[in-house]
Every structure is written in structure tokens, then in C-alpha cells.
Write a structure and sequence with these properties.
This protein has about 450 residues and is of the alpha/beta class. The protein has helices at about 1-15, 20-25, 45-65, 130-140, 160-170, 185-195, 200-205, 225-240, 260-265, 280-295, 300-310, 315-330, 335-345, 355-365, 370-375, 380-395, 400-410, 415-425, 430-449, and strands at about 30-35, 35-40, 70-75, 145-150, 180, 210-215, 245-250, 270-275. Helices cover about 55% and strands about 10% of the residues. Helix 6 (about 185-195) packs antiparallel against helix 7 and helix 16 crosses helix 18. It is globular and about 75 Å long. About 35% of the residues are buried.
Length: about 450
């Protein structure tokens, strides 16, 4: 059956355009096969979903044509396996390989994602300090900090900045020994070193043969006491020699389950910065830059619509742009507002389904103000306060665009953006506002159940 898959791919190649075959069919590999079933592996989830939706029937028919009985065709995401090999550490080790990155050679054997540089990083209010701190450490500007911990949810740029530091240091000094890895890689290498009785080589590699340590996802270390202890000793040795250490994590050390106080203290001994979700204006910049890089032309209305809807992270925005590009190239669809809405509906959960009228009614009821006053030009706090909260809740719960929300209160879309960001900022320090918004949000959540 595995041999048959190669023949079927050749048959499909004659029926679809070359770019379609290269993009969707060629990467698929046969993982498992028996008389009644076959499992095909796709390189990622997006590819798998697209193939299932568009080519499953064709592939199933091809298999059934060469067998007597029906064949159950299944698809899985084929993940790369990481195989640590610490047993053969050289006395002067080569650069640490970046997991999962393109095979592009740099000085030594270090592989860096060429896209993750400072000049390609979009700076906004939510990441400005993290960007400045990263660049400061990378350039070696005079400061008292040699370690940096970046905290953020996934997809907000901490890996980009971490690798940008590596790029900048190597550009200035190609002989620098830069080790980049995840905490999971570090753990696997240490375990393999113990099993092969090469722990001393492992210690020497990271304590005496490292100039810069870029360690990602340190939250993975929660509960791993022996790994935490060894990493702690390594960090002490590097700090004593004033080496540069950069960490990233999705959780603050104090919130990582079963993280020792000693390691938590070491992780936070230098600069600590958080990266929040990009605001509306930053999302617009990101979308325009990514669209240019992907070769996708977007009108201003489509850019605004995407920036208004795709609030989670940069990866969500990239996914939307890739979907638009694929629809445009493969089926000839025109990239317009209708297509953008279709793509966004597949990426954004259906939680935002409350009408602006319902939100307006709840806000006016809670604050005991008339709808006409919310829509008036008055800037008195008694009306501006609930008006801002209305704008915030509309962006969180409704499906309306910024322009539509603005028109509902006789304001521009930029006013809605400003009001939303003002509420988000104040809720972090104003407990009363946070409580009020929480109560109204609870009422809205109840309408969605």
C-alpha cells in the first residue's frame, strides 16, 4: 500500500496544477498501511485540514481503484522527532542547532530563522520595552544587566526577539558560542547524558563552552527538580563569568508549578519584561508588513477588518493571510471583504455574537443613563465613562466592525479603538471598573449560553 501511494501521487499530479501538487500533495507521506486502512501524514494541521476538505474523495477513490475492498483513508499531522545526541560532545562544541528551523548554514553550525531579526520586528506599545531590552543586551551597550526574562503568551514575539539577539551577536562576532534551545531540549540532553555517562561533558558544554545561552519555554521545567538544580548551577557559572543569558516563558517563575525558589530567583535576577497582545494600531502594522512579505494585496478596509477581529496573536494573523493567499491562488478567489469575513469566521470562535443593541441596553441599565446621552457629543464623565465601556464590550462580544460600532455612538473608528484601549488599561489598576465590567460581561456571557 505504501508503494501504491507513490503511484497515486503521480496520478494526482496529472490532474491538478503544478503549484497545487507541490503545495498540498507532494509533502504527504504514507505513515501506516494495511489491507483495509491507510494513514497519510501531512506536515502541519492547516495542510491536513485543507487536503481533507478538498482532496480526500479523490485520494480515497484512487486507493479503492487498486484494491478489492474499500480503504479507510486517514490523515495525521506528521511531527518532527527531536533526537538529542550529547554523548559525542566535542571538546570545542559547534553551535547548538535550532530545532525545527530551515536548513540554512551560518557561521559554525548554528541555524537561525532568517526572518527573526530586529528590523523585522514590529514595535508597539505592548512590546516596546522587551524590544529595547533585547536590543540593548544584544548590542552590548553598557548596563548592569546580563540576563533577560521575557514573559508572554505564545505567538506574541518572545521567540522572535530571542533569536534576534542571537543574530545580532553573531553578526558582530561570528566566533561567539551561542546556544539556543528549549527547556525541553536541555532536559532531554541532560537525561541522555546521564544514561550514557557523559554528564561531565554536558556540564562542560554549558558552563565553560557557552558565551550566550538562549533558553526558551522555561515553564517546561516545573516539577523537574534535578533538571532545575543542574540548570541553577549552570546559570551560576555563566553569571559568574558575566555571560549573556536570555529566557522566555509563558508563566512568571512564581506561577510555574513546583518551581524551586532558588531557580525562580535566578531567572528573575536580571531584567524581566512582559509582552502583551498587540493593540489595534500595532496589529494593522503587523498585517501590512506580513501581507507584503507573503505577497498578498489587502485593501485598507480589509486590513482594518482583520486587525479588528484577529486579536489573539501574530500566528493567528499569519494564518489568516496564508488562508487568503491560498484561496486566491488555488481557486482564483478575489481577496475582498466577503472572503476576509469567511476566513476570519473559521479562525475566531463564535463567542462574539451579541448585538450592539443588547450591549447598549445593558450598559444604559447598569449606569442608569439614556441611550441618547451615550450617543450625544457630551464629554461629561457621567456619559463618557459608560460610552467607553460600551465600546470595549462591543469589540469583545459583537461581530460588528469598528466603523459600525463608532456610528452607533456617533464616533469614528479611531475613537472606538482609543476607548477600548483606555478601558483595558484602567481595568488593570482600577478595581471598581474591573468589577463593573465583570458584572456586565457576566450578563452578556449568560445570553450566549
Amino acid at each position: 500500500m505504501k508503494t501504491a501511494w507513490g503511484e497515486i501521487k503521480d496520478q494526482i499530479k496529472t490532474r491538478v496544477p503544478d503549484n497545487t501538487f507541490s503545495l498540498w500533495i507532494k509533502p504527504i507521506e504514507c505513515l501506516e498501511a494495511n489491507k483495509g486502512a491507510v494513514v497519510l501524514g501531512c506536515p502541519n494541521r492547516f495542510s491536513k485540514d485543507w487536503v481533507v476538505e478538498n482532496y480526500l474523495d479523490m485520494i480515497r477513490d484512487k486507493f479503492n481503484a487498486i484494491t478489492d475492498d474499500p480503504v479507510d483513508v486517514q490523515f495525521k499531522v506528521q511531527r518532527r522527532k527531536r533526537t538529542p545526541s550529547p554523548a559525542n560532545f566535542p571538546s570545542h562544541p559547534a553551535q547548538q542547532t535550532l530545532p525545527g528551523m530551515p536548513k540554512k548554514k551560518r557561521s559554525g553550525d548554528l541555524l537561525l530563522n532568517s526572518q527573526f531579526t530586529f528590523d523585522r520586528f514590529i514595535v508597539g506599545q505592548s512590546n516596546e520595552f522587551a524590544y529595547s531590552a533585547s536590543k540593548n543586551i544584544a548590542l552590548g551597550d553598557p548596563c548592569n544587566y546580563h540576563s533577560l526574562l521575557m514573559l508572554s503568551n505564545t505567538g506574541l514575539g518572545k521567540t522572535h526577539l530571542s533569536q534576534a539577539i542571537g543574530h545580532t551577536i553573531l553578526a558582530a562576532n561570528p566566533q561567539s558560542r551561542v546556544f539556543y534551545m528549549t527547556a525541553e531540549d536541555f532536559t532531554n540532553e541532560m537525561i541522555a547524558s546521564l544514561r550514557t555517562r557523559r554528564i561531565e561533558a554536558f556540564k562542560s558544554r554549558y558552563r565553560r563552552s557557552c558565551d550566550v545561552l538562549l533558553l526558551e519555554e522555561v515553564h517546561f521545567l516545573g516539577g523537574k527538580e534535578k533538571i532545575q538544580t543542574e540548570l541553577g548551577y549552570t546559570l551560576d557559572a555563566l553569571a559568574q563569568d558575566r555571560k549573556k543569558i536570555i529566557f522566555t516563558s509563558s508563566l512568571p517563575p512564581k506561577d510555574i508549578p513546583r518551581m524551586s525558589k532558588e531557580l525562580s530567583s535566578r531567572l528573575t535576577s536580571g531584567l524581566v519584561t512582559t509582552i502583551g497582545g498587540p493593540d489595534y494600531h500595532t496589529r494593522v502594522q503587523i498585517l501590512m508588513e506580513k501581507a507584503k512579505r507573503f505577497g498578498v494585496f489587502l485593501s485598507k478596509d480589509v486590513v482594518r477588518f482583520l486587525a479588528d477581529r484577529l486579536k489573539r496573536d501574530v500566528r493567528q494573523m499569519e494564518s489568516a493571510l496564508k488562508c487568503l493567499k491560498a484561496r486566491s491562488e488555488l481557486v482564483g478567489a478575489k481577496i475582498n471583504m466577503d472572503l476576509a469575513k469567511e476566513v476570519v469566521s473559521a479562525l475566531v470562535s463564535g463567542e462574539s455574537s451579541v448585538t450592539t443593541e443588547k450591549i447598549m441596553a445593558l450598559v444604559c441599565e447598569y449606569y442608569k443613563v439614556d441611550i441618547e446621552m451615550i450617543r450625544s457629543k457630551s464629554r461629561k464623565k457621567v456619559y463618557a465613562y459608560p460610552r467607553n465601556i460600551y465600546a470595549y464590550l462591543c469589540r469583545k462580544y459583537s461581530d460588528e466592525t469598528l466603523e459600525t460600532i463608532g456610528r452607533s455612538i456617533n464616533r469614528s473608528h479611531s475613537t472606538v479603538v482609543y476607548a477600548t484601549e483606555l478601558v483595558e488599561k484602567k481595568m488593570k489598576t482600577d478595581r471598581s471598573m474591573k468589577h463593573q465590567v465583570g458584572l456586565i460581561s457576566k450578563r452578556l456571557d449568560e445570553t450566549l449560553q
